[in-house]
Design brief:
The protein is of the alpha/beta class. It is 36% helix and 21% strand. The protein has a single domain, classed as P-loop containing nucleotide triphosphate hydrolases (Rossmann fold, 3-Layer(aba) Sandwich), CATH 3.40.50. It has helices at residues 36-44, 86-102, 121-133, 149-164, 184-200, and strands spanning 6-12, 24-30, 62-67, 71-75, 106-114, 137-142, 173-175. A 7-stranded mixed β-sheet has the order 1-3-4-2-5-6-7, sandwiched between helices. Strand 6 (137-142), helix 4 (149-164) and strand 7 (173-175) form a beta-alpha-beta unit. The longest helix has 17 residues, at 86-102. The model has no long low-confidence stretch (mean pLDDT 92). Bound molecules: guanosine-5'-triphosphate and magnesium ion. Magnesium ion binds next to helix 1.
């Protein structure tokens, strides 16, 4: 799929304030600092579109970006950022869980996993919660430029084993690097196919 336009649309602090839109949405979730905003920029082909930061907890609102005037990418705040204030964390959790379980035009949630690490409890718990909620997910193993391919494969395999205890089917998955552009065309192809299916439905 060719990206002809990618524009920031709006930010929302809660589900109620999300824009009323008929466009299909593809959202990014995952631990703080896993690379959600970076991946969004890579897909959009626009550096600096979503704000990237070396310190975790940077994205604090639900951020909407409209692609090709036809569909949306949604950048969510990360989970697992321990130093966020408690009351703020509760607001975060409500905002994210409401969006992920109640947003009617949400087509797919990409759950980002840092490919450098063996499965982390916080990620697995989050995946379990999403699966129970019935939210359509796909996995994205990020930052593959940072480890040897063998290590990445091993971590994916361990992750697959852990997820098999929760679900018979392993969701679609991708490996990405913003340094090399790995995974960009695969992810865009996946989104394009999903959009075609919704159109045909
Ligand atoms: N080497 C490498 N670094 C990456 C990659 N993706 C992201 N990073 C770096 O990881 C850091 C965090 O990236 P962000 O995109 O801000 O992460 P985030 O998940 O949006 O973080 P929060 O908004 O804080 O939850 C930045 O320093 C990025 O440059 C990647 O594929 N390879
Ligand atoms: Mg971010």
């Amino acid at each position: 799929m060719k990206i002809r336009s990618a524009l920031f649309y709006t930010s929302a602090p809660s589900l109620d304030s999300c824009p009323t839109s008929a466009l299909s949405e593809f959202a990014f979730i995952g631990r703080s600092n896993v690379g959600k905003s970076s991946l969004l920029n890579m897909l959009a082909g626009k550096e600096g579109l979503a704000k990237v930061s070396a310190t975790p907890g940077h994205t604090q609102l639900i951020n909407f970006f409209v692609i090709n005037d036809a569909w949306s990418l949604v950048d969510l705040p990360g989970y697992g950022y321990a130093t966020t204030h408690r009351s703020e964390r509760a607001r975060f959790e409500t905002m994210i869980s409401d969006y992920l379980t109640k947003r009617s035009n949400l087509a797919r949630v990409f759950v980002l996993i840092d490919s450098r690490h063996a499965p982390q409890t916080i990620d697995l718990e989050f995946v379990q919660w999403l699966m129970t909620a019935g939210t359509p997910i796909a996995f994205v193993f990020t930052k593959v430029d940072k480890s040897k391919p063998k290590q990445v494969q091993k971590n994916i395999e361990l992750f697959r084993e852990a997820v098999s205890a929760m679900s018979q089917e392993f969701p679609p998955f991708f490996t990405t690097s913003i340094e090399t552009g790995d995974g960009r065309s695969q992810l865009l192809g996946f989104i394009e196919k999903s959009l075609e299916k919704t159109r045909d439905a």
